[in-house]
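=== How it folds ===
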Amino acid sequence: MDTTAETRLIRHLVETPDSAIPASALAAARRFMVDALAVGLAGSAHPAQPGMIAAAGRWGGGEEASVWGEAIALPAPQAAFVNAFQAHALEFDAIHEAAVVHAMTPVLAAALAEAERAGGVSGTRLLGAVVLGLDLACTIGAAARGAMRFFRPATAGMFGAYGAVARLRGLDAATAAAGAGLLLGQIPGTMQAHHEGSVALAVQMGFAAAAGFRAADLAQAGLAGPAAWLTGPSGFLAMTEPEHDIAPGLAALGRDWQVERLSHKPFPSGRLTHPAIDGVQRILAQGAVETARVYEVRLLLPPLAMRLVGRPLVPGLTANYARLCLPYVVATTLRFGTVGLQDFTAPRLVDADTLALAAHVAMLPDGSTDQNAVVPQVVEIAMADGALHRAEVQATIGSPENPLSDAAQRAKAEACAAAARHPMPPARLYEMARLVERLASLPDAAVLGRALRTA
């Protein structure tokens, strides 16, 4: 019996019965699907979105799947491309912290587009494809042990998108394995986009979602990629994550469901900024900080935070850069008590008081060696009179260890729907959420995609 990592992952993907997925995993899937769809609606207002749609429209005609928050449909791969872009464009989409992968974004974008394209896909099958696609993406992403060299949300996320499409198409293990190998030549995810705060980060998430369709189409046409696509000497892990250990993830297949390890993002900024925001909020709640008397804010950060969001304040801040800039995000929290979508608009990005306060933020390595840890993070606020306020965050807000309340999840979804290019009224948002909640009873999940279109 073939026991390679590739075979075990593919068999788990295509042979696990929907009935084997526990109720807790299905509930988590529904919860994070609503979050992803709402965030995708908000992302329709990103300035680059019209250009994305225009470009995607040149890649082929047809109306197979909805563009979230718009009145149009595109061929399924193009719709998935645009929707995954929208869902990541505002840095508001859920994340699997251990994998450092925004896995729901490309997985759901691809799965829902495929369900619309095919028609007659039951809600139960859609849920299963999302859960198993997430298992594939997060197991691969969580194998990393070294510093991130490629943009893992897109690279590992691509496998999840493919997994969802392959499962919905009912591919057998041999065909699904052939398609997985065909993903290697499509790896999206340079970290240079992250370093520069470029919109290309979100575009790469679109590439990840669309790649799943190309690989599945080619596999069904009889083509096959390398068999050792994951663990070969030039396979995915060797190329992108040379320091890795896939064994724990393989051992957890069918026992631990990765959808239950997803984390909400309550703030539209890089996940590694969330513990610092939380720490500042805890100190502000004590009522002892006047921002005018702040002498210095010191952030003690793990290596991942230093690399991903420990970037300096620069002149001419753009929204994409500022979302990943701790000095700006921390100063914003100190001034306004939180971080919201409005804090990345042009007036806020040039606010002199915020920028002056951001200049007092110092980012220091905490001496830890885990290259993929999000927490702990420590916030110290030194006042001009010598007083020192300190908060240590051990569990990121929105994580399974420190989850968002149902009320906070609803408030986030409402804010996202209201921020869309074509704002979605609360009644329609709740209708969409109810469709997700009763997915298991829907004979055709395409109704969910259509509910995301504007009138």
